[in-house]
Amino acid sequence: MATVPRVKPVGSGAPALGPAAAAAPVAPAAAATSATPAPREVAPAFSPLYQQIKALLTSSLQGGEWRPGELIPSETELAARFKVSQGTVRKAIDALADDNLLVRRQGKGTFVATHAEQAVRFRFLRLVPDVGPAGGMARRFIDCRRQRAPAEVARALGLRAGDATLQVRRVLSFEGRPVVLDDIWLPGQAFKGLTAERLSEYKGPMYRLFESEFGVRMIRADEKLRAVAADAESAALLEVAPGAPLLSVERLSFTYGDRPLELRRGLYDTSAHFYRNELN
Questions:
Q1: Selecting from 3.40.1410.10, 3.40.50.2300, 3.90.190.20, 3.30.2010.10, what CATH number does the domain 119-275 have?
Q2: Mean local confidence (pLDDT), 102-113
Q3: Rg over CA atoms, the chain
Q4: Closest CA to 243 of 252, 257, 231
């Protein structure tokens, strides 16, 4: 006996299929699941308006529109220039002051920060005596020479191996006692004309010399710290016993645009000093 196919009656919950529909091929289920999903749209990053004004002001500082120590336009003038509210400008200036790029002076206005300012003068020197105020260290320059950049120095400063660098070695003393031995590398192109005589003659902070005569302002730094033992050479210069414990501080300092312009390796005698850092 021939088997008669069963047909689901109309009205039972499934739609009736016409001849054309019945003949249409059906794609396998696997094909549907293997389709590549449409890429998700990425929303643009949102930046608060005061941050945008801060970036514009930083660009003006970087371009030299206002030099270290100079008065910048008032909040009212800047608000008109950028077509924003005075409150937005104030918030941007507050942020730059927090970054030590600007300094507010009561009744006088806002000035471009300089390393001659007492508030930021020793911002990068964190070594504090156990007794007495911070800073006030005498310096003695041992060497200042131009040479080709060693590979590791070139990498740190974003130079090509063999590019010209200036290497400076100095000792910082507190009350006649050597405390810090610094080896400093600077890009030769950015510091043309810098000599040991010029460094010795200048009485202010080294970073102040950099910004006033070479147009280089250090605005931030990354540091690596570790404990080391004094080798014979560093022990002699710091007047400690060979093998004495020292604090090694490697600092990479940056100017605007996160451009590295100084590599400094210091050895600190902490027998009468401590390294102080403020964490917010």
A1: 3.40.1410.10
A2: 91
A3: 33
A4: 231
Q: How would CATH label the architecture of 49-112?
A: Orthogonal Bundle (1.10)
The answer to whether 143 and 169 are in contact (CB under 8 A) is yes
Distance CA 190, CA 186 (A): 8
> Looking up tokens 């006692």, which residue turns up?
177
Contact between 207 and 273 under an 8 Å Cβ cutoff? The reply is no
CA dihedral 236, 241, 244, 247 (to 10 degrees): -30
Q: Give bridge partners of residue 182 from the DSSP assignment.
A: 170, 266
The residues of the chain that CATH labels 1.10.10.10 are 49-112
Nearest to 93 by CA among 130, 132, 54: 54
Q: What is the pLDDT of residues 54-94, one digit of tens each?
A: 999 999 998 889 988 899 999 999 999 999 999 999 999 99
CA distance linking residue 48 with residue 127, whole number of Å:
37
